[in-house]
């Protein structure tokens, strides 16, 4: 069984990132990089079109679920 733990913490965002087609989405990339995220999970096509940022995969919910079940 796969369990996800909910936790939150403050991070210092990465240096300014300007990669998304929608500049309002760049803050999510900065947080993910600054927080050393394992994945960015989103339904936003502007983010999904990037594929990854600094070796952090950007995936939709279906792909994320597949990745989780592969670990089980």
The H-and-E topology, N to C, reads as HEHEEH
Mean pLDDT over the full residue set: 90
- Helix count? 3
Structural class of the secondary elements? alpha+beta
Helix content bin: 25-40%
Dominant shape:
globular
Number of strands: 3
How many angstroms separate the termini?
Answer: 7 Å
Oligomer: single chain
How are the strands of the biggest sheet laid out side by side? 1-3-2
Rg (CA only) = 13 Å
Indicate the proportion of strand residues: 5-15%
Ranges where pLDDT stays below 50 over 5 or more residues in a row are: none
In this structure, how is the largest beta sheet organized? 3 strands, mixed
Description:
33% of the residues lie in helices and 11% in strands. By secondary structure, the protein is an alpha+beta fold. The protein has a domain at 23-71. Strand 2 and strand 3 (56-59) form a beta hairpin. The longest helix has 11 residues, at 61-71. The N and C termini lie close together (7 Å).
């Amino acid at each position: 069984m796969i369990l996800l733990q909910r936790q939150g913490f403050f991070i210092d965002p990465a240096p300014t990132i300007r990669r998304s087609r929608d500049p309002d989405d760049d803050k999510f990339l900065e947080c993910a990089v600054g927080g050393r995220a394992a994945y960015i999970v989103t339904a936003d096509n502007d983010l999904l079109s990037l594929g990854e940022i600094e070796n952090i995969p950007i995936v939709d919910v279906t792909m994320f679920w597949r990745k989780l079940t592969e670990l089980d």
